[in-house]
Amino acid sequence: MTMVLGIPLGVLLGQLLLGLINGAFYALLSLGLAIIFGLLRIINFAHGAQYMLGAFAAVLALKYFGVNYWAALLLGPLLVGVLGMLIERYLLRRIAGEDHLYGLLLTFGLALIVEGSFVKLFGVSGASYPMPEQLKGGYNLGFMFLPVYRAWVIVVALIVCLATWFMIERTRLGSYLRAGTENPKLMQAFGINVPLLITLTYGFGAALAAFAGVLAAPIYSVTPTMGANLLIVVFAVVVIGGMGSIMGAIVTGLAMGLIEGVTKVFYPEAANTVVFLVMVLVLLVRPAGLFGKEA
Amino acid sequence: MKMLQKTASAILASSLIVTAAQAQVSDDEIRIGYLADMSGTYRDLSGPGGLEALNMAVEDFGGQVNGKKIVVFSADDLNKPDVGANTVRQWVDERNVDMVTGMVASSVVLAASKVVEQSGKLALISGAAASSLTNEFCSPNHIHWTYDSYALANGTAKAVLASGGKSWYVLTADYAFGHAMEADITKVVEADNGKVLGKARHPFPTSDFSSYILQAQGSGAQVIALANAGSDTVNSLMTASQFGVTQSGQQLAGMVVFLNDIHAMGLDVTQGLMLTTGWYWDMNDESRAWAQRYFKRTGKMPGMVPAGIYSATTNYLNAVKASGSDEAQTVRKQMMATPVNDMFAKNGTIRADGRMVHDMYLVKVKTPSESKGEWDLYNIVRTIPGDEAYRPLAESKCKLVTER
């Protein structure tokens, strides 16, 4: 077998594929963060909690109402999205235009409250979510065994990411959104309801996080702290991609997944740190991030 | 030097006799501190449930021993050694606490037990895994009750080796506990002519294990050992199940797996897993009866750690009763002289190094069809006699053993 740096090519390919799957999660999560920051200028520390809420929505809906996976994939984001809109309408709006720090503190506080309550209610061991029947099993790719579910994750995450990018960058609604953040007063003068747009945007960002949560439920253990552990990496991804850049978030998310995947083969001890190393290097060379516009 | 030591111990012994003769309880109250992780990773392992078990023990004594009231304090150590150590210091200095129990995360316990030793109090450690607590870090001021990493690695690894698993791959949590466990496993495997083909050290904590599982699959080892705990073990097992590890003929061996982990993952994922435990609620009539009482109060079946806390506390209070004192060394001596016979252990004995030696159980996780209820999770495969389960005194590096 062909060897690359002492590792068989097949093994490396397998690891790259797994990296891409993790990258798909990073991309989905950082996309929501990037949209919220880009349009609201809010650093949404509640994003991890919203991801966790999505996963728990799926678990609880199945347990108490028998809602299946496919319905949960819609229901989870919808519920969390509505919750997000309420948070924007009644809390975040009060501090609009204030220093970034207020938004950060508010969302961080919310995340702590939600996660703490879930620990109280469900404990820390969490719950498991059964794999949907249609997505059980796996493909033998010759160099690795690829579970069907992981293949599904990467496909659906990429579709959602690209659809979101298309909506914001290429449609009329997206152009309103972007214009609304550039100059809200002018947009208002044109008769566009900017506050409603902003509420919808935050709700959509939260819904994206919840969608990732439902996707994650069958493969990771669903615990109240599942989001908090992931959030820091996702923030690093957003910073590397350039705060607020949609395409930057998607591309960087996937790339960081790949880089992590390779690190896990050659030096697993550094797997959690490599993303931050990249972040430092990128910030040294391009302070606005890879895809960010210089301020 | 020998002479000096002899004199010193003679003086010590006579002072003990004096204390015992006075037979008194400080402040006319028996004060117990419960230190555990009440909000983090180990909350479900011990946390509020362990405190409930402690309260059950206190209530069984009617809240008093020989007319002296039992008072319980509790605190969250947040899994931080400095917080744990400071809490214990405060308890000792300000509240004159006599005994500390719970004691979960090994890192916290190592720090807190030093404070206990300096202040001459007693700790009954139930939650922590590190076997170093009765080896290089042993002390005359603590007793390690429920289990330890040596017994778990020893019990599970030997059973897997005996069933034919000779080549191993070790997946290790990259911190002190994981490294110690990895060393214990390697030792057991190599002693039995097995071979460790490879290992990966993953950051603590990790949520995605697919990469490591794939590496372990690629290694061709017959057995994949998990030298990690808590959510890391849960995620490793779930990932292994998705990647068809057992279907491809490899066997998994979880080293530190608790009842609450199995309950959280469900039997679909965990069926067939071998693990070692210090206690199981469905072992005998006594354990079942106690577990039912616990269940009524908490809504959960107890794992070995809450059961160990109840047992340790009960034996402690019995020793206070018998000796009429809550002075640490008097009580310890009394406890060492009395075999442990309760819902937790039969003929358990406390060794000189502070290890409570009792039988351990090798169990196999039931299949979903075997299980008759939410908490019906284990089949006991073998009872491992205490002497075989724990590190023999002959190998001990404990100062209480080597300097005798």
From TrEMBL, chain A:
Its main location: membrane. CDD domains: TM_PBP1_LivH_like. InterPro entries: ABC_transp_permease, BCAA_transport_permease. Keywords: Amino-acid transport, Cell membrane, Membrane, Transmembrane, Transmembrane helix, Transport. It is a multi-pass membrane protein. It is found in: Cell inner membrane. The chain crosses the membrane at residues 12-37, 72-92, 104-129, 149-168, 189-220, 232-258, 270-289. Belongs to the binding-protein-dependent transport system permease family. LivHM subfamily. This is Branched-chain amino acid ABC transporter permease. It comes from Pseudomonas fontis.
TrEMBL record, chain B:
The keyword Manganese does not apply. InterPro entries: BCAA_transport, Leu-bd, Peripla_BP_I. It comes from the Bacteria. The keyword Signal applies. Keywords: Signal. Residues 29-366 form the Leucine-binding protein domain. Residues 1-23 form the signal peptide. It holds the Pfam family Peripla_BP_6. Belongs to the leucine-binding protein family. This is ABC transporter substrate-binding protein. It comes from Pseudomonas fontis.
